[in-house]
Design goal:
Elements: H1 3-76, E1 82-86, E2 104-109, E3 115-121, E4 124-128, E5 136-139, E6 166-169, E7 177-180, E8 187-192, E9 195-204, E10 210-214, E11 218-219, E12 253-255, H2 267-272, H3 292-305, E13 311-312, E14 314-317, H4 332-341, E15 343-347, E16 349-350, H5 354-359, E17 374-376, E18 381-383, E19 406-411, E20 421-426, E21 430-435, E22 441-442, E23 445-448, E24 454-455, E25 464-466
Parallel strand pairs: 8-25
Antiparallel strand pairs: 1-2, 2-3, 3-4, 4-5, 6-7, 7-9, 8-9, 9-10, 10-23, 11-22, 12-15, 13-23, 14-15, 16-23, 17-18, 19-20, 20-21, 24-25
């Protein structure tokens, strides 16, 4: 082999060695690329999850800061609607909050402490509705992660007032708000079987439901004479011809056993009731049938109204308010509320209690159903101070039946004493009572669902309505 051939052989060997090195390098690159393809998404997901968790913590802290803001405002009496808009400017409402500030969005705090939120962190929107404690995470959308978010629907409530017509904190009931005064702008229009009917909003409840009462009467006997006469299945209503004062029956009426608190504990119950009850009624007594009006309102009337889809089954206070010769000062209404709350009935349509009619007045001398009556010199009739500045006892409620009383859901006196008398209200006068079989007019009341979204302003010309 000559030198020239040896030289060429060496060059070929060098090329082969170099070519192998390139293949090896290429293999390494391919392996690294595959690893990156597998690992990179997981790393990105881990980083995104960490950011998401951090932002969730920030959102949770915003809710806590909002609750703290409400508590402070409630103590100082600043019970107003609070709206916080992000990004914030120096003049906007602020929270005592040290976490990351949302890039966009809104928080609303209602006068009853209900909080809703839709705020942007990164490319996500963190939302919370008034009726839920959960925070949901959805992709950010500029058109909905703001005041237009659906989380702000379903809980419209006015600013609270402490004088004049308007919405008040209910006496002795935390988280419940009631309309009071001659014209507190609480009109609401509901469509019954294609026909618009005017109602009034009575209260915003702690569970988010809205209690309303019809403005036009329904003509039906509270309880038919002899309809629940004593039988083997009914040993509770022993005054049959006069009707029975129990709104419900033993299967849907619950006795709570003890008053809600001891402050205004009425000794009558302590001495005459026992917690050993059968099916919610007194020991040894039975009642299998509800009142005539109860059956009608929750059957034929409800079906014909077409309103069932909007109504929440709810507890109604149906305990008896005992007749007393004195109002017991400012303790009276609280004590009467306590008496009513001892019994509850669960269903869809009921009536207002006698204390709900009383509390609708802003007259400072209306402290009880038994507040001292005065004599009207023009009509020579007795007038309760609770009928003054009271939309529920105004003339328009009684326009079609000006000389007739309207029933409440509240029995007079303890069930064990006289189970046939029902409290009723009179136009411009106040309260009285009558045998259940003698009461023919009533105003249906019920609770709208907590998800109800209202439009309108509540005035007579622009009443609230369900969106």
């Amino acid at each position: 082999m000559n030198k020239e051939k040896m030289k060429k052989l060496r060059e070929k060997l060098k090329l082969s060695k170099f070519a192998f090195t390139l293949i090896e390098l290429l293999a390494v690159i391919i392996v690294i690329a595959l690893l990156l393809t597998i690992i990179a998404p997981k790393v990105k997901k881990t980083l995104n999850d960490a950011e998401k968790n951090t932002n969730m913590t920030s959102a949770q802290n915003l809710v806590k800061a909002s609750e703290f803001r409400y508590s402070n405002d409630n103590i100082t009496g600043n019970t107003k609607n609070i709206i916080l808009t992000y990004p914030q400017d120096k003049d906007s409402n602020i929270l005592d909050y040290s976490g990351a500030s949302p890039e966009a969005g809104r928080i609303k705090i209602k006068p009853n402490g209900k909080i809703a939120m839709a705020v942007k962190f990164g490319d996500l929107c963190y939302t919370k509705s008034y009726t839920s404690n959960d925070i949901n995470v959805i992709p950010y959308d500029e058109s909905t992660c703001n005041e237009n978010s659906e989380v702000f629907e379903g809980y419209d409530i006015q600013d609270l007032v402490t004088s004049g017509d308007g919405l008040y904190q209910a006496k002795g009931e935390q988280g419940r708000y009631v309309f009071r005064g001659a014209n507190p702008n609480n009109y609401i229009k509901l469509t019954e079987n294609g026909v618009d009917e005017i109602y009034r909003i009575v209260s915003y409840e702690p569970d988010g439901t809205i209690k309303v009462v019809r403005n036009e009467v329904v003509n039906e006997t509270w309880d038919t004479s002899g309809g629940r006469t004593p039988t083997s299945e009914n040993t509770f209503c022993y005054v049959g011809p006069s009707g029975c004062a129990a709104w419900g029956n033993q299967n849907d009426t619950l006795f709570k056993g003890e008053p809600l608190g001891d402050t205004f504990h009425y000794e009558y119950y302590e001495n005459n009731y026992t917690t050993e009850l059968t099916s919610g009624l007194a020991v040894g007594r039975t009642l299998t049938t509800s009142s005539t009006l109860n059956i009608y309102l929750n059957g034929e009337w409800l079906e014909n109204s077409g309103l069932s889809q909007y109504i929440e089954s709810h507890d109604f206070n149906v305990g008896p308010v005992n007749y007393k010769s004195t109002s017991d000062g400012d303790k009276g209404l609280l004590r009467e509320k306590e008496e009513e709350s001892l019994y509850t009935w669960n269903g869809k349509v009921g009536l207002l209690t006698v204390t709900e009619y009383a509390e609708s007045s802003t007259n400072p001398t209306c402290t009880s159903v038994y507040s001292d009556w005065s004599v009207d010199s023009d009509s020579a009739t007795f007038v309760s101070p609770c009928s003054v500045d009271n939309y529920n006892l105004s003339p328009d409620v009684f326009a079609s039946n000006p000389n007739t009383a309207i029933a409440t859901i509240t029995p007079k006196d303890a069930y064990a004493m006289n189970p046939s008398d029902i409290w009723q209200v009179y136009p411009n006068h106040g309260f009285g009572y009558e045998r259940a079989s003698f009461i023919f007019l009533s105003l249906p009341a019920f609770y709208l669902k907590a998800t109800t979204n209202l439009g309108g302003t509540g005035t007579s010309s622009d009443p609230y309505y369900i969106k």
